[in-house]
Amino acid sequence: MKRLILLLIPAIILSCIVLLTGSTSSLYLLNWGEYIDPSLLAKFEDEYNTTVVMEEVGSSEDMYQKIKSNITPYDVAIPGDYMIERMYKEDMINKIDLSSLPNYSSSMFNDDLTELRKNAFFEGNEEYCVPYFWGAYGLLYSTRKNYVEDTVKTEGWQSILNRDVYGTNKDDVKLAMYSVPRFGTTAYLLENGKDINTDKTSDFAGLVSQMKKADYDLWGDDTIKKQIAVGNIDVGLTQLGDFFDQYYLSKNSGEEVKFSYYIPEKTSAFFDAMVVPKTSKNQELAYDFIDFMIEQDNSFQNTTYVGYSPTLKSVCSMLEEDKDYDELLSAYPFYIDPLQNKEATLFRYIDEMDDGTDYQDFLQDLINQVKA
Amino acid sequence: MKKNKITVSQVLKTLFIGLVIFILYLPIIIIFVLSIDTSRTGNTFTGITFEWYKEIFTNKSLYMSIITSFAVALSATCISAFLGTFAAIGIHSLSKKAKEKVILLNNIPVLNAEIVTGISIMIICSVLIPIIPDFFGYWTMLIAHVFFTMPYVILSVIPKLNELDPNLYDATTDLGVRPFKALWKIVIPSIDTGIISGSLLAFTLSIDDFVISYFTSGNGVTNFSNWIYVRLGRRNFTPAAYAFNSLLTIVILLIVLVPAFKKNKKRTGKN
Amino acid sequence: MKKFKYLSIPYIIWLFILVVLPLIAMLVLSFMDSDALDLSTAKFSLDNWASLFNGVYLNAFYNSLKIAGIATIVCVLIGYPISYIISNSHLKNKFALIMVLILPMWSNQLLRIIAWEKIFYPISIINNIGLSFDLIGTDFAVIFATVTMYLPFMILPTFTVLEKMDKSYVEASYDLGVSRPRTFFKITLPMSSKGIMSGVIMVFLPASTGFAITERLGGGKIVMIGNIIENFFKRSFNYNMGSMLSLVVIMVIMGAIVLLSKFDKEGETII
């Protein structure tokens, strides 16, 4: 028992250290893991004489749950597109007074993205979110096996849905699929000409049997890109940003880049944007942060750290003019122009299927059936 | 001479234990190798470096999460051990029927899936938010950890209480010692091993927890496991995490093995 | 000692708030169709329980029972002998050796899972020493990793029980001419059964309700009940189904414990 009392001393000391961090004058930021350059945060803290308390999550759903639970007074959050729509519908985010953002101008974002937001997203979204990064969905593939690249480029989504397109190599090729139901079912919908935001159960009719036949070697989210980079998996469906993320990582580790990316003709785009949740207690600081992040040089610094496609036109120009990025941009032009004139749409928030079942439950059930 | 002969069964037993230890430590060895690998991705071994060990002290989000993990684990262990022991004494003194019911209740957190425990605590704590706005964070994580570790302390202490000679306590009080002093001086030392093993278990469970901590954290407070979990994706997390883990393992191994070797030396020395 | 039964009251209240209330809440939720915790739009529904016999869930239950079951049996077959060997040895530092076996538990479980990933994927850092295994997605990988993660939880209680067991019974048995194996099965094993039971519970429970190991080492292909519950609570926010399945898990496990305790002579509880 006495030994335990001795333990109390370090316990109390450490507890004090934890309790003394963070204060009400801090900016509470809810972000994805490794989705912002830490030195930018430090720069913001210096410039505005404040501290940033950042919480990180691994999914838009986690972000939604954290904001909804009202536990932490988040000032800025960076959810994904369809989640922003959900938060808007459920009255969880504040309207942003764009005129209070000195760095903002309505034409500052990539034209493709601006057009998608105007035509394929909920009305008025321009006043509720400020884009952070964006991209498209496509196929990340390993270049270690020479037959893979050709098949992926000619077959598009089929190369991830149907082993037969690999002919004699169909048992040798290693395929991976996103385990997040929303994205896991997207390839099937796109390949079969359906709307990615469909709520008709009939549109999913052949999904289970086809995907079961594909016999995926791996289901995951972020593990896919890593295993493709290493060579354990040959083809997987991922976000565009995942490719550059791994590309930077490999380059920095001195490893050869033995993987590449292909965006099929019909795809879906995505974007993550900054919102101001209603939990915010520090609106002014929230606006300062958003304004700070859309400032050209800061955005450029963030882009080169994170690896996702920049949403600002000015940053794209800076990358084009920067000699260091010549090689990257000529090999992968879709870095600053993800859609490359391809047909794309955005993910919307869908609550229920046409038969009343919850949308997420329905999709999750399909995926579970495929795995069973 | 017969005493020193090494039998086949002794060799087999040693090999068996050695094999099990090796397999249990395989992941630890790999973590160590990754911690000194210059490659950030850990895909191949590209060279030896100790920069990741240095990074433990410079990466703020990393060391804060480590400090949080230890602060919570140590505090929760102390609190659970203390409160749990007294609760166990209380339960032990109940009538048989009441005892059985309370122990059943006590076991439910043990039997529940962690995710359920985490969400239940989160829901209950969120009820208090209107009253105490900044409640979440360190305090809720601590409460959650005390909650799920106390049952184990109680389960370790109760059997020891059962073994206790009931006459011992009565004899002490008969001699005029006040009840609580009797408790402190006589009862508790006799159940010492129960308290220690319960505390060990509590600490082990607390230091490694990520599911329950996830739901009960907030206001920027996060523990080591959560720090890792959130980074398993986007970009590879820095090998500094492996470095810290290896450091911890080495330190604890030393704490455990050095006194053991000293003890051995002493005894053979005497011979 | 009867005086001290009042010490248990605070704990009972604590348990009531943190265990009973959530259980009741889960029970209520399982019979409803609501939008997460928003009870204003909730309506009574038996749909959740009706879907229990859906193929997907039955498959998940089967996977969980299979994998956790095999892992638990392996843990008993390896863990108990280890505790037995060490306990019966004449080592001076038994406890230190046990600590060495327990130590890996203090390494973060997520990091250990990553280490196993490196071992089981064909292309990884272990290629540097010429090894390569292609076992991701197999039951073997998941069971093997589960065993290594939870073996210490089997070793600790069995060792504790064996250590404090009254060895005079065993000696008396030998003196009476009973053979070693017979003594073991008739005396040692029954007397240490409580330790095995706690070990079984401490291994089986997290193994069957966890999701991290299967998610990462099963290549996402193996769906266990823990994964499904996680999806309900964290992806689709369907607390109704999540509660229903969690309750089923608790009932199954409690049922198993009640059955097992019929074999336990003293009728006492776990550890």
Please compute the radius of gyration of chain B using only Cα atoms: 23 Å
The average pLDDT value of chain C, as a whole number, equals: 85
Strand content bin of chain B:
under 5%
User: What about the largest sheet of chain B?
Assistant: none
- In angstroms, what separates the terminal alpha carbons of chain C? 22 Å
* Fraction of residues in H or I helices of chain B: over 70%
Structural class of chain B: mainly alpha
Strand line-up in the sheet with most strands of chain C: 1-2
Q: How many separate structural domains of chain B?
A: 2
> Can you write the helix and strand succession of chain C as a string?
HEEHHHHHHHHHHH
Bulk shape of chain C = globular
**CATH third-tier fold name of chain C:** MetI-like fold
CATH domain class name of the largest domain in chain B: Mainly Alpha
Query: Can you say what the CATH homologous superfamily of chain C is?
Result: MetI-like
What does this structure look like?
The complex is a heterotrimer of chains A (372), B (271) and C (271). Chain A has 372 residues and is of the alpha/beta class. Chain A folds into two domains: 2-133 and 271-335, D-Maltodextrin-Binding Protein, domain 2, CATH 3.40.190.10; 135-269 and 343-371, D-Maltodextrin-Binding Protein, domain 2, CATH 3.40.190.10. Chain A is built from 17 helices and eleven strands. Chain B has twelve helices and no strands. Chain B has helices spanning 8-35, 51-58, 60-92, 96-111, 114-127, 138-163, 166-174, 179-190, 192-208, 211-216, 224-231, 240-270. In chain B, helix 3 (60-92) packs parallel to helix 6 (138-163). The longest helix of chain B has 33 residues, at 60-92. Chain C is mainly alpha-helical. Chain C contains twelve helices and two strands; from the N terminus they run αββααααααααααα. The longest helix of chain C has 34 residues, at 55-88. The model of chain C is unreliable at 265-271 (pLDDT under 50). At the B-C interface, helix 1, helix 3, helix 4, helix 5 and helix 6 of B face helix 1, helix 3, helix 4, helix 5 and helix 6 of C.
